[in-house]
Amino acid sequence: MAGNIIEVKNLVKTYPGDVKAVRGINFNVKEGEFFGFLGPNGAGKTTTINMLVNLVKKTSGTVKIDGLEISDNPDEIYKKVGFAMQEVGLDEVATAREMMQLHGRLYHMPKAEIDAQIAKLLKLVELEKVADKFTSTYSGGMRRRFDLALSLIHKPKVLFLDEPTQGLDPHARQLIWGHLRELNKQGMTIFLTTHFMDEAEELCDRIEIMDKGVIVTEGSPAELMKKHNAKNMEEVFLKTTGSTIGEEEVNANAPDPFSRARSGGRR
pLDDT tens, 221-241? Predict the structure, then answer.
């Protein structure tokens, strides 16, 4: 049986003003697992995933990836994880190949290894024909697929995905699904957050649902539907998360627009 590649114990994130975004959660992800991490807006999902990849500092608790505590081994953690974020930010005056070469060099990869990985990944995401075109000319689906390839350039052991198919048409969405299935089949651990319940049901081996900073249920899609007497994962989600649109809170950590205006827009 595969061991745990992610281990989270008593993870807490509290922002200034005693805003508790994550309230002492515990979970594990097995190596090679396709893991879904779901929840409504404001549940703490994105804060959690940002802590797991060391983009946000945790308040307390432990997080281990491949046996290493993230706070003690940040450089090693960056080598072990890939992260395709919710918002795709690409250099629009560079080609896909140029960006992949740059990212490979940032990870201190040998040139021959970079070139081999670029060829492999461009084939995987079906962008070989446009690899030398500016990314500004890419469609939304092409940009998502390229962002996926870019997150894999350094051969990470764990791939974190935050809403990878948001805004895509059904054809582009199916393409992304196919690429993710192939990566998982090859042994990669995938950690997925999504608001598409059919996506989670279709792709994930196991799912945890978070609401108001805590884990409210977990299991395989079949186990969750049986446990909550639901026809599909959307029903599971609605039954286990008590939030409504009217209860959604503002982002307490958003920058003060007046202070930005006074500073002339400078950050």
Answer: 999 999 999 999 999 999 999
Computed on alpha carbons and rounded to an integer, the radius of gyration of the chain in Å comes to: 19
Structure-block tokens of residue 149: 């390839």
Backbone angles phi, psi at 227, to 5 degrees: -60, -40
Could you tell me the pTM of the whole model? 0.84
90: left (phi over 0), alpha (psi -120 to 50) or beta: beta
Q: For 83, how many CA atoms within 13 A lie in the half-sphere containing its CB?
A: 17
Whole-angstrom distance, CA of residue 168 vs CA of residue 183: 20
Domains of the chain: residue spans and CATH: 32-54+79-242 (3.40.50.300)
Question: What tokens does 127 get?
Answer: 């962008």
For residue 202, the surrounding DSSP H or E stretch is: helix 197-203
Angle at 125 between CA 173 and CA 38, to 5 degrees: 40
Q: Which residues of 120-143 are buried (b: 16+ CB within 10 A; e: fewer)?
A: ebbebbebeebbeeebeebeebbb
Residue 1: the pLDDT is 54
Instruction: Give the DSSP letter string of 85-131.
Output: -SS----TTSBHHHHHHHHHHHTT--HHHHHHHHHHHHHHTT-GGGT
Which whole-number Å values give the CA distances from 249 to 51, 231, 252, in the listed order?
21, 29, 8
* Separation between Cα atoms, residue 117 and residue 152, nearest integer Å: 9
Distance CA 5, CA 158 (A): 8
Order of strands across the sheet that contains 214-219: 81-84, 158-162, 189-193, 34-38, 206-211, 214-219
Residue-wise over 27-48: b if at least 16 C-beta within 10 A, else e? bbbebbbbbbbbbbebbbbbbb
Chain centroid to Cα 226, Å, comes to 27
